[in-house]
Amino acid sequence: MRHGRKINHLGRTTAHRHAMLSNMASSLILHKRITTTVAKAKALRKYVEPMLTKSKEDTTHSRRMVFAALQDKESIKELFGNISGKIANRPGGYTRILKLSDTRLGDNAEMCIIELVDFNETLIESKQAASDKAAAGTTRRSRRGGKKAAGDAATSATEVTGEAVAPNAVVEQSAPADTATETLHNGESREEAKADEAGA
Questions:
Q1: Cα 151 from chain centroid (whole Å)
Q2: Where are stretches of biased composition, namely Basic and acidic residues (predicted)?
């Protein structure tokens, strides 16, 4: 039974565990991603994230607190130089664990990659591209006709004839008339009317 067992000792003594997590934290800070087992990555996440939070405030006290855990000047310089600037606006959750499909050959342990979230350039670029595409996306248009279509027809008829048309009125469009078959009000064709006028 695991009553009250809140810490994974990873099969090591306390001193060995602290030394291992310190080395892994330094490697993560310097290289931005490391490959390890899932159990170690989860332990490392709890170990390194408070240090990343301390690095946001660049004071002598916070530098000494982090150095007491890491014992590595190069990783301290990288942490308080490059990393603290990138994670300044992030309110926690600085690391990401990506599980790998293959397991370790010797003991079949689950493997994973633990990385700093703000330094995965490919993922950041894809998210940026997705957000740009969403911002410049197409607008949704309604497929319904109805009143708007009738109003558009009335407007176009007004532009052609120059007369005001009621918005709900149905506009009739006549086909182009042939001069030979076009009839007048009294039933005569246009040519017959012209002949009568010439004879008179």
A1: 39
A2: 185-200
At which residue do the structure tokens 């997705």 appear? Answer: 130
Residues lower than pLDDT 50 in the chain: 179-181
Is 118 within 8 Å of 87 (Cβ atoms)? yes
Tell me which residue has tokens 């490391």: 34
For residue range 99-158, list pLDDT tens digits in order.
Answer: 999 999 999 999 999 999 999 888 888 888 888 888 877 666 667 766 655 555 555 555
Q: If residue 155 lies in a helix (H) or strand (E), which one and from where to where?
A: helix 147-161
150-175 b/e (C-beta count within 10 Å ≥ 16 → b): eeeebeebeeeeeeeeeeeeeeeeee
Please calculate the CA angle 144-145-148 and round it to the nearest 5 degrees: 115
